[in-house]
Write a structure and sequence with these properties.
The complex is a heterodimer of chains A (286) and B (65). Chain A has 286 residues and is α/β, with parallel strands linked by helices. Chain A has helices at residues 12-22, 52-62, 85-88, 106-119, 141-153, 166-175, 196-205, 219-227, 237-240, 245-265; strands at 31-33, 36-38, 42-44, 66-73, 95-98, 125-128, 157-162, 179-182, 211-213, 232-235. Chain A has 10 helices and 10 strands. In chain A, the strands form 4 sheets. In chain A, strands 3-10-9 form a 3-stranded parallel sheet. Chain A is globular. The N and C termini of chain A lie far apart (65 Å). With 65 residues, chain B is mostly beta strands. Chain B has a single domain (2-60), classed as Ubiquitin-like (UB roll). Chain B contains 1 helix and 5 strands, in the order ββαβββ. Chain B is globular and about 40 Å long. The chains are: A alpha/beta (286), B mainly beta (65). Strand 4 of chain A pairs antiparallel with strand 5 of chain B, so a sheet runs across the interface.
C-alpha cells in the first residue's frame, strides 16, 4: 500500500496529485439507492455457503458492495470465540442490508428491522420481506404494505421484496420505499425471469431503482434482468448453490455488467428473416 | 429471577439490567436486544432493568439472502 507523503517541502503539483488520489473517482453509470452511489449493480446474500471463508471469497469475486444478512438469535453460551459474519463483511467496507427473511407478518418484520438498525449503529437501510406461503415464499402484500408504512414513518429506508405486479410496484414507490425488488421466480428456485413483460412494465413505470430479487439461476438470467432495464439484481442461492460458488460469483459479476451495457447500448430489432452482414456489391462469383 | 432468554427459561441471580445480562453471558461482537418484544437500544442497556418473567431476545447478523 502506498503511503502518501505529507512533508512540508512537497511541491504544489505533488500535493494536487495526492488530493486527486484521495478523492474517489466519479463512478460512471452508478447505481443510486437513497442518494448513495454504487459501482456494482449486483447485490448478494450471505446464506447457504459452506463456511465464512467461502462466503468471503464469493463476495469478493462478485464485486458486490451491498450485501444482505439475516437477523437471528445468538447461541447462548457458545458465543465466545465463534467466527462472526460481520468480520468477513465489515460494515465500514460494505453496505450491509439486513433482511426480514422468514417473517410471516408485519409485526415480526418491524421488530427485526428495529433490531437490525440498532445492531448496525443506526444504519437504516433494510430489505423488507414479508412472506405469505412457505411453499412458494411469495410475499404477503397486505402485511408488506403494513410493515412498509410503519418502517418508513420510523425513518427506515425500505427496499421492498414484492411480486412482479406493476400496480404494487407503483404503490410501494408512492409510499416512499427507496427501491422496489420484484421477484423473477420463487426464492431459491433458480427458474430465471418467468415474466419478463411484467418486469419491463415495472421498470418503465418506475422513478426509483428496480432490482430483481429472487429467481435467478445462472448468469444468463442475470443478464436478461439487466437487459430488461433493471437497475440491479439481488441473488444468493444461484451463487451459493453453484458447484463452484466463487467461479459463479465472478460469472454473475460479468453477466450483470454485460446486461447493463447491452441495455444502454440498445439491442438491434428482431427480424423474421436473415439480413446479410457482408455486402452484395463487388462479388466476383456467381 | 426467571427470565426467558432466546426461548430458554433461565434462572439468574445478581443480574439487574440488560448490561449485566450481556456481561454474564459474555456476548461479544455486534448484537441487539429486545425485552418483551420491545427494542432496547445500546444506549439503554445499562439502565433497562430486568424483571422476573421477562422475555429477552439477543440477536446477531448471520448469513441470509
Amino acid at each position: 500500500m502506498e503511503i502518501p507523503l505529507k512533508s512540508s517541502g512537497q511541491s504544489a503539483a505533488a500535493e494536487a496529485r495526492d488530493r486527486a488520489r484521495d478523492t474517489p473517482p466519479e463512478i460512471a453509470d452508478p447505481l443510486v439507492i437513497d442518494g448513495r452511489k454504487f459501482r456494482s449493480r449486483l447485490l448478494v446474500g450471505t446464506g447457504k455457503y459452506r463456511d465464512l471463508e467461502e462466503t468471503r471469497r464469493a463476495i469478493d469475486a462478485s464485486g458486490a458492495e451491498i450485501v444482505t444478512v439475516a437477523i437471528r438469535r445468538t447461541n447462548i453460551g457458545q458465543n465466545v470465540g465463534e467466527p462472526n459474519l460481520l468480520d468477513v463483511i465489515p460494515p465500514d467496507r460494505f453496505t450491509i442490508l439486513p433482511n426480514t427473511a422468514m417473517c410471516y407478518d408485519a409485526d415480526s418484520a418491524i421488530r427485526t428491522s428495529r433490531l437490525a438498525r440498532d445492531l448496525l449503529d443506526g444504519h437504516s437501510l433494510v430489505k423488507l420481506e414479508v412472506l405469505g406461503d412457505p411453499k412458494t415464499l411469495f410475499p404477503d402484500i397486505p402485511e408488506t404494505l403494513k410493515a412498509a408504512d410503519v418502517l418508513i414513518r420510523e425513518g427506515f429506508r425500505v427496499m421492498v421484496y414484492t411480486n412482479d405486479d406493476p400496480v404494487m410496484a407503483r404503490r410501494f414507490e408512492e409510499m416512499g420505499c427507496v427501491a422496489v425488488m420484484p421477484l423473477a421466480a420463487p426464492i431459491g428456485s433458480g427458474l430465471g425471469i418467468r415474466n419478463p413483460y411484467n418486469i419491463r412494465t415495472i421498470v418503465e413505470n418506475a422513478r426509483l431503482p428496480i432490482l430483481v430479487d429472487a429467481g435467478v439461476g445462472t448468469a444468463s438470467d442475470a443478464a436478461i434482468a439487466m437487459e430488461l432495464g433493471c437497475d440491479g439484481v439481488l441473488m444468493n442461492t444461484a451463487i451459493a448453490e453453484a458447484k463452484h460458488p466463487v467461479l459463479m460469483a465472478a460469472a454473475m459479476r460479468k453477466a450483470v455488467e454485460a446486461g447493463r451495457e447491452a441495455f444502454l447500448a440498445g439491442r438491434m430489432p428482431r427480424r423474421a428473416y436473415a439480413s446479410a452482414s457482408s455486402p452484395m456489391d463487388g462479388k466476383f462469383f456467381p | 429471577m426467571r427470565i426467558i432468554i432466546n426461548g430458554e427459561e433461565t434462572t439468574l441471580e445478581g443480574v439487574a439490567t440488560v448490561a449485566d445480562l450481556i456481561c454474564r453471558f459474555a456476548f461479544h461482537g455486534r448484537i441487539a436486544v429486545e425485552v418483551n418484544r420491545e427494542l432496547v437500544t445500546h444506549g439503554q442497556f445499562a439502565t433497562r432493568n430486568l424483571r422476573d418473567g421477562d422475555t429477552v431476545e439477543i440477536v446477531r447478523a448471520i448469513g441470509g439472502g
